[in-house]
From TrEMBL:
Gene3D superfamilies registered for this protein in UniProt: P-loop containing nucleotide triphosphate hydrolases
GO molecular function ontology, one term from the record: GTP binding
Protein name, per record: Ras-related protein SEC4
Organism name: Acropora cervicornis
SUPFAM superfamilies: P-loop containing nucleoside triphosphate hydrolases (SSF52540)
Length: 204
């Protein structure tokens, strides 16, 4: 008999343009887009990972980073969150320094107080890097997290992000599967599930 599947919610947060959606698309095997399209509504995808002997379904929420949409992002966080992937652009110092805001937002609205953090410096393939690895590691240490250098464009360390956050999440804190994902609790490879998009950020 297969062990019961656990479900954990993970949010991707960070400033607009840091590559949250690109990282998610790369992870699910979609072609990398060189055209920037601003995220204005939530997108949820799911993947099954094995952590020890326990299958874990990650529900990965991509959230808007634009300041006009932050009330919408906060609404997503009001549902219980087990993990947060905080993403900045290594070529933009401001996105690194704003990580403090995003951590505070997660801790304020997520509610559980036990959110696991992984910090990601994206676009390491770019020559104009201004945030070094040591700064990323220092940031992660400050919040008891893990830091990973990533390139969504080159698919460098993208899989590591989600494997790491899955391993950091306390599986006992996940919820028993209630009709979500594979009916038989079998492992899938980056399986995707579409969700209703109830919230949309509209610019006036």
């Amino acid at each position: 008999m297969l062990p019961p599947k656990k479900v954990a919610k993970v949010v991707l947060v960070g400033e607009s343009g840091v590559g949250k959606s690109s990282i998610l698309s790369t992870y699910f095997g979609e072609p990398f887009s060189h055209v920037y399209v601003q995220t204005r509504e939530r997108e949820i995808k799911t993947t099954m990972l094995n952590v020890g002997r326990q299958p874990l379904e990650l529900q990965i929420w991509d959230t808007p980073g634009n300041p006009h949409c932050r009330t919408i992002t906060a609404a997503y966080l009001r549902e219980e969150v087990q993990g947060a992937v905080c993403i900045f652009d290594v070529t933009r110092d401001d996105t690194y320094y704003n990580m403090q805001h995003w951590v505070a937002t997660v801790n304020t609205y997520a509610g559980s107080g036990n959110v696991k953090f992984v910090f990601v410096g994206n676009k390491v393939d770019q020559k104009e890097r201004s945030v070094n690895i040591e700064s990323g590691e220092q940031l992660a240490k400050q919040y008891n997290g893990i830091y990973i250098d990533v390139s969504a464009r080159q698919n460098h360390n993208v899989n590591m992000i989600f494997q790491t956050i899955a391993e950091r999440i306390d599986i006992e804190g996940g919820q028993e599967n209630a009709g979500i994902g594979d009916e038989n609790g079998q492992e899938g490879d980056n399986s995707m599930k579409n969700e209703d998009r109830r919230f949309q950020c509209i610019f006036l």
